[in-house]
Design brief:
- α1 runs parallel beside α4 (79-92), α4 packs parallel to α8 (246-272) and α8 packs antiparallel against α11.
- A hairpin with a 2-residue loop joins β3 (137-142) and β4.
- The protein has three domains: 2-121, Orthogonal Bundle (Butyryl-Coa Dehydrogenase, subunit A, domain 1), CATH 1.10.540; 129-224, Butyryl-CoA Dehydrogenase, subunit A, domain 2; 244-397, Butyryl-CoA Dehydrogenase, subunit A, domain 3, CATH 1.20.140.
- Helix content is 46%, strand content 13%.
- 49% of the residues are buried.
- It is built from twelve helices and nine strands.
- By secondary structure, the chain is of the alpha+beta class.
- Strands 1, 2, 3, 4, 5, 6, 7, 8 and 9 form a nine-stranded mixed sheet that branches.
- The protein is globular, with a radius of gyration of 21 Å.
């Protein structure tokens, strides 16, 4: 079954002057939106997409401008601020936070495309750009570009996006085939209504389908070249901001989602333990029980440990960008490992809170059960997966090849 890619005209891209011109108070603007985002979280899960009101509010706050070049009205926001912004959104709703990080990443990738493509994509600095790195489509070379066919699953926020960065295998007879990112307007793609999941349910990560879509050559980016640190944008190639490795940035962005979910669980737990007792015990209020003290402290320490690891990860990425010093293989592998470990620590913190919250927390109107499912879904992401990332880092520490170009 396919669904319209934009049935909500009220959340069409805002005009270039609609959002604030600076990101100096971006964190505060998002923080002020938390009550709205939180109040729509249950509805987002029910509808399996972030609500139109929240999409519009986040766009109006300027979050899609974080990685857009300044010449188009973007912010080129520091990574530290991006993590703060994304974790604040995630603390209010894991699905909204995940959609925000994917579209923040989409803006960064789009800025690496040829300049002619950027002129098309960034007609508004508030353009919402999604994308995936799953090469399940094919791109056949034709005069002046490619014809694309195939599907792109896990296309987060696709129904409210303006552009989709679709990954495809170039059908040129090469072995292995070259991987390409192709920038395609969402109006040229179909959306399959297939996002029926148990975690990050409101992220709207449906499958998008290309059927004989023609993509001009200037809207194509080689994934291999990008991983090697080169990209065709003449205007951005000398900017250290866009020299930050995309996959390591994704580590930081997903860490923000995990941190926000852990904070949300701790906040919810703090409120609930003063409102309920522990069944079949003498404790009329949960906060009076020693076992609660141990559970709460353990969860808080794991969340704090995750915060510290994430801060170190961000500091390394930003310092490397500022100094223009290349990464060692071990540094890249360590960042991948830290990304997974942050997600794992946050999941452990949330699981502790969930197990301490009693059977009443299973009700749909209690946010903790949704937070548990969301953080579990994040840990299952193939790039975030703690075990896979630890193995990669362990290989490098042991003097072996990392066995993947994706780091």
């Amino acid at each position: 079954m396919s669904v319209p890619c934009d049935p909500r005209p009220e959340v069409a891209p805002l005009a270039g002057s609609s959002a604030p011109r600076s990101d100096t108070d971006l964190v505060q603007r998002v923080r002020e939106l938390q009550p709205l985002i939180r109040s729509h979280a249950a509805r987002a899960e029910q509808e399996r997409r972030v609500t139109g009101e929240v999409v519009e509010a986040l766009t109006g706050a300027g979050i899609h401008r974080m990685n857009v070049p300044r010449r188009y009205g973007g912010y080129q926001t520091s990574l530290r601020t991006q993590i703060d912004v994304l974790s604040e959104v995630s603390a209010a709703c894991g699905s909204a936070g995940y959609m925000a990080l994917i579209q923040a990443g989409g803006g960064f990738i789009a800025a690496l495309f040829p300049d002619e493509a950027q002129d098309e994509i960034f007609t508004s600095p508030d353009a919402r750009i999604g994308g995936t790195l799953i090469p399940s489509s094919t791109a056949v070379p034709v005069d002046g570009g490619y014809v694309v066919n195939g599907s792109s699953p896990f296309a987060t926020g696709c129904q409210d996006a303006d552009w989709h960065l679709l990954t495809a295998r170039a059908d040129t007879g090469e072995d292995p085939p070259q991987l390409l990112w192709l920038a395609i307007p969402m109006t040229e793609l179909k959306v399959l209504d297939d996002w029926h999941v148990t975690g990050l349910t409101g992220s709207g990560s449906n499958t998008v389908v290309a059927q004989d879509v023609q993509v001009p050559a200037h809207r194509v980016l080689s994934v291999e070249q990008l991983l090697a640190g080169t990209f065709p944008s003449r205007r951005n190639s000398a900017d250290p901001y866009y020299g930050m490795p995309l996959l390591l940035l994704f580590c930081a962005w997903t860490a923000a989602n995990a941190l926000g979910l852990a904070r949300a669980a701790l906040t919810e737990f703090r409120e609930r333990i003063h409102q309920r007792g522990i069944t079949y015990t003498s404790y009329e209020r949960q906060h009076e029980a020693p076992v609660t003290h141990l559970q709460f402290a353990e969860a808080a320490m794991r969340a704090t440990s995750a915060e510290l690891l994430a801060a170190e990860l961000v500091e390394l990425i930003e310092s490397k960008a500022a100094d223009g010093v290349p990464y060692t293989t071990e540094e890249r592998a360590r960042i991948r490992a830290q990304c997974g470990y942050v997600a794992r620590l946050c999941k452990e913190a949330v699981d502790l809170i969930g197990s301490a919250s009693g059977a009443s927390s299973l009700h749909r109107d209690v946010p903790i059960q949704r937070i548990v499912r969301d953080v579990n879904a994040l840990n299952l992401h193939s790039f975030v997966n703690p075990a896979a990332n630890l193995e990669l880092y362990g290989r490098v520490l042991s003097g072996l090849d990392p066995d993947t170009p994706f780091f």
